[in-house]
Design goal:
This protein has 16 helices and four strands. The chain has 363 residues and is an all-alpha fold. The chain is globular and about 65 Å long. 41% of the residues are buried.
Length: 363
């Protein structure tokens, strides 16, 4: 699998100064870069939102209509677990203890996903080759959506700025039914599984075992053992997944598929013009930084620039280091893309979708 190479010498002073300033911040405050009590309390809160409503549904504690509200709350809990707990853990920033990180990373399986796939697709491919067509799978390997300018164009893409948001709600459903399987088989085939230090058979076995446990818990147990109406479970489950899928998708798309971000292409020898850190500044954007609730709920992922530059720092620290990053970027005349509000970022994303949806010769 041919991958792009970054220019390590290009603007390396920016990288060195930024690292030194961020490290000095933690030293001066005498604090760890990992998660702290704020993250641990949030973990408890999000697990509660996900697990307690499901338990109440299983024991038939809630009235008929309230079960679906319970599934909505579970969807919100899914987002909190995925973005605050699993995300930090798989990046190794949840705890200084690697075993704690590994255990909390398995919360992805609790949501019906696959932590290994996430590690490869997100940590390795997306974080390294951000917005590089054909390498960043967050924007590639799509069909009904065209999220990068070199992607195959279909006539339906002319309307993607209209239908994209409903499509986004299907993200987590696709984990369970389709994409986890196709992604893992692709990684096994192209050598990515071995490249990140695992074995094909090991990951395939884990995938099927954890999927079976998930399906038993979410479907077999309530329908065939506890006798809950199958259609109530199916409808509730779809509602939960649509809530979670929509928030997950929109959050990640607003960070990279907006009007200000770039899609750098490697030259014929596979070289990228900038070094990796500067590349991140060109391809990533922040949004709604002043919203404390949003920063809390989506695990600081509205601070995507800081997250991409320092994925091994827990998201609870992003608001404090963001000014360091912004000021250093300004000093070195490097772009720092940000949208003041969620609304502004969403409008920019829809405009970008409309632009990418035009027939290439007409774009």
């Amino acid at each position: 699998m041919a991958l792009a190479k970054f220019n390590l010498q290009n603007q390396k002073d920016f990288v060195n100064v930024l690292k030194e300033r961020v490290n000095d911040y933690f030293k001066s405050k005498g604090i760890s870069k990992f998660g702290d009590s704020r993250l641990y309390w949030k973990t408890a809160a999000m697990l509660t939102l996900y697990i307690v409503p499901f338990v109440l549904i299983l024991i038939n504690f809630l009235p008929f209509w309230a079960n679906w509200i319970g599934y909505v709350i579970m969807g919100i809990g899914m987002v909190g677990i995925g973005m605050s707990v699993m995300h930090d853990a798989i990046h190794g920033s949840y705890s200084s203890n690697k075993y704690v990180n590994k255990m909390m990373g398995f919360s992805m399986e609790l949501l019906g996903g696959n932590s290994f796939n996430w590690k490869v697709q997100h940590n390795v491919l997306h974080h390294t080759y951000t917005n590089i067509p054909g390498m960043d799978e967050d924007i590639s390997h799509k069909s009904i959506l065209r999220l990068e300018p070199t992607g195959k164009w279909l006539k339906i893409h002319r309307f993607q700025h209209i239908y994209a948001l409903p499509i986004y709600s299907l993200l987590t459903l696709s984990w369970l039914l389709w994409s986890d399987f196709t992604s893992l088989f692709r990684y096994n085939k192209n050598g990515m599984t071995k490249m990140v230090g695992s074995k094909n058979t090991t990951e395939v076995t884990k995938l099927f075992v954890f999927k079976a446990i998930y399906i038993f818990t979410l479907f077999i147990l309530p329908i065939f053992i506890l006798g809950i109406s199958w259609w109530q479970v199916i409808v509730g489950y779809v509602i939960m997944q649509m809530v979670a899928g929509f928030i997950f998708s929109v959050t990640f798309q607003l960070a990279h598929v907006v009007e200000d971000t770039n899609y750098p292409l490697p030259d014929e020898e596979g070289n990228i013009e900038n070094n990796w850190a500067v590349h991140q500044m060109h391809t990533t954007a922040n949004f709604a930084k002043k919203s404390k609730f949003m920063s809390w709920f989506i695990g600081g992922l509205n601070y995507q620039i800081e997250h991409h530059l320092f994925p091994n720092i827990s998201h609870v620290h992003y608001p404090k280091i963001s000014e360091i990053v912004k000021n250093t970027a300004k000093e070195f005349k490097i772009p720092y893309h940000e949208y003041k509000t969620l609304r502004a970022a969403l409008i920019s994303h829809l405009r970008k979708l409309k632009e990418l949806g035009q027939q290439p010769a007409m774009a």
